[in-house]
Amino acid sequence: MAVRLGILGLGTVGTGAVQLLQDTVGRHPLLDEIEIYRVGVRSLDKPRAVQFASGVVTTDLDAIVTDPEIDIVVEVIGGLEPARSLMLKAIQAGKHVVTANKAAIARFGDEIFTNANLARVYVMLEAAVGGGIPVIQPLKQSLSVNRIHTVTGIVNGTTNYILTRMTQEGSSFNDVLADAQRLGYAEADPTADVDGLDAADKIAILASLAFGGRIKLEDIYCEGIRSVSKTDIAYAEKLGFVIKLLAIAVQTPRRGVSTTLSVRVHPTLVPQTHPLASINNVNNAILVEGEPIGQVMFFGPGAGAGATASAVVSDILNIVAALKTEKLSTQEHQSKISLINPLLACRHQDYCQIVPNSELVTKFYTRFLTKDQPGVIGKLGTCFGNHRVSLESIVQTGFQAELAEIVVVTHDVKEGDFRQALREIETLAAVDSIPSLLRVL
Ligand SMILES: NC(=O)C1=CN([C@@H]2O[C@H](COP(=O)(O)OP(=O)(O)OC[C@H]3O[C@@H](n4cnc5c(N)ncnc54)[C@H](OP(=O)(O)O)[C@@H]3O)[C@@H](O)[C@H]2O)C=CC1
Ligand SMILES: N[C@@H](CC=O)C(=O)O
Ligand code: NA
Predict the structure, then answer these.
(1) Measured in angstroms, how far is the CA atom of residue 98 from the centroid of ligand 1?
(2) Any idea where the ACT domain is (predicted)?
(3) Which end of the chain has fewer CB within 10 Å, C or N?
(4) pTM of the complete model
């Protein structure tokens, strides 16, 4: 008997998943044991790229998640509500869930996974981070014996696409954003992409899997790419860097506290020789560092219909395989399984402790506009020295109107010390403004 799907949503990802499920030749044979039983949408009148038998498509999503004929609910409507309630109803009705919804999982993961574990159903989310790149399952399974200490990722396809085109073509931010929307990379509201919120949701999920505890979104420092200017992209290049929106989760030793993490999202100057520097366009990459494995990097398309569908359907297949194994052992048809496979499930209960950004140790790039007077560079150096900020380089790079442009790159410094130095610098009569401040990897 086929395993029956109720798919919620037939947009970019839903359509990609259906296309894959309707074209199974040359793919895994288990795909032929899956039936698309119901598809839930908002509007029945929209033209669709895929066809179904009559009665399959409906606007009654509640009926799908409670339908006793359905084994697996695939949530690809996105957003917080009704996605959260529909996933919870499906779980309560004993259905397994596959979702691409990082926003809902990052906020309601606690509630969703607790309910799923009680109901003995799986909630699978490979598509939620890195689109088509397998990264969730490797963290749950293949890397789970490692002690992971750092996860650094380019995890938002839209912003990586925008920054790549701004860097390579000097294109304007708004033109490139419109292209990312047209190509189906951006969220329904692209603010989540551009302001780093989507990347924050994703690093919360990755950090939770890598470090074995839940993460509160409000503990994540989050800065998007709106402030990244063509000027800084050009200076970064001259200094041997590229600017990328990085999501970083790193274990930080802290006196008296066993394990603390720094979890943050911000535009970052990445050395041109670093493996993440060459990740361009809609591609994502996640660099995982741990013991004993060392460094592992996952790379591939982070958004788009086909890539994301690959992850969604592979999650469906994992559940189908688990159901089939269970059926073979019990010889009876049931969608509910008696034992949860701990390498497929999410099991975390406790929250990780996150360090405030003031304690973060990192390098900074800062651009100053100052009066063109002798001794300004010396004054900046003195202020930094007063606050224990040691400098890697300080150069006058040119002029903007009457003002001199000075670019500073620090060594590793405590962010709190660096901010204090900037406050002192702002009081200097020779300093006009500080147009940019970016962290350096
Ligand atoms: N696009 C991408 O590349 C990726 C997306 N994701 C995630 O996948 C999910 C889906 O994204 P995407 O496919 O791009 O989104 P789209 O906006 O393209 O599609 C959303 C679909 O859900 C339906 N829908 C939305 N709200 C409701 C509702 N209240 N009731 C019924 N149907 C509803 C829409 O119906 P209708 O068609 O009738 O309007 C549409 O079919 C999101 O969580 C997103 O973050 C994850 C990785 C990559
Ligand atoms: N909007 C997201 C889609 C995938 O998660 C992105 O651009 O990465
Ligand atoms: Na993925």
Answers:
(1) 14
(2) 365-439
(3) N
(4) 0.95
